[in-house]
Amino acid sequence: MMKDDDIVVRARGRLGAGADAAFETFYRERSLPMVRLAVLLVDRRAVADEIVQESMAAVFARWGQLDEPAAYLRTVVVNRCRDELRRRRNRREVELAERVDHPAPGDELRDVIASLPERQRTVVVLRFYEDLSIEEIATMTGFPSGTVKSTLHRALARLRTVVER
After folding, report:
1. Cα–Cα distances in Å, from 38 out to 13, 15, 98, 121?
2. pTM for the complete prediction?
3. Boundaries of CATH 1.10.10.10 in the chain?
4. CA–CA gap between residue 19 and residue 119 (Å, rounded)
5. How far apart are the first and last CA of the chain?
């Protein structure tokens, strides 16, 4: 199995210096928003940072082949977050969630969102933090659009009960 670092080294040789500069700009623009997305999904900053770094390496490896690298990056980040949550569930370990040192301004609902079940959290974050449509969420997650709608409805009902308290 090839490591992401090996993939990046091979891709760098194929892509050339111009692609390096374009990717560096892309990395600077998209890195922090993707870390925020990953933190909202996995609720652990260190894990989120690692997921984004691995995802950026995957994007870089396919840089010359991608029509929409930002969309591809978001899909890779979400899928790797789902994999992380699946691994946690399979291990059945109870761990204390590492909290973000400095939550983003205007992110008062982060703790409430973190308490949602995985599927509801994923749909809420993609809809309201990434501003994706129901159809885009369905495509990205592989859920039917009706499932996305009903999951979002249940999540919002749950959030309303917590906020009203």
Report:
1. 29, 28, 13, 11
2. 0.66
3. 104-165
4. 36
5. 50
Mean pLDDT by runs of 10 across the 165 residues of the chain is 47 56 92 94 92 96 93 95 85 48 57 86 90 91 92 91 77
- Three-state DSSP state, 76: helix
Query: What's residue 28's pLDDT?
Result: 94
Q: Which fold has domain 104-165?
A: Arc Repressor Mutant, subunit A (1.10.10)
DSSP the chain: ---HHHHHHHHHHHH-HHHHHHHHHHHHHHHHHHHHHHHHHH--HHHHHHHHHHHHHHHHHTGGG-S-HHHHHHHHHHHHHHHHHHHHHHHT---PPPPPSSPPTT-TTHHHHHTS-HHHHHHHIIIIIS---HHHHHHHH---HHHHHHHHHHHHHHHHHHHH-
Q: Are the CB atoms for 50 and 131 separated by under 8 Å?
A: no
> What pLDDT, on the 0 to 100 scale, is given for residue 108?
65
Q: Mark residue 95 as left, alpha or beta (left: phi above 0; alpha: psi -120 to 50; beta: remaining).
A: beta
Tokens of 153: 């409805």
How do the residues of the chain divide into helix, strand and coil, expressed in percent and rounded to 5? 75, 0, 25
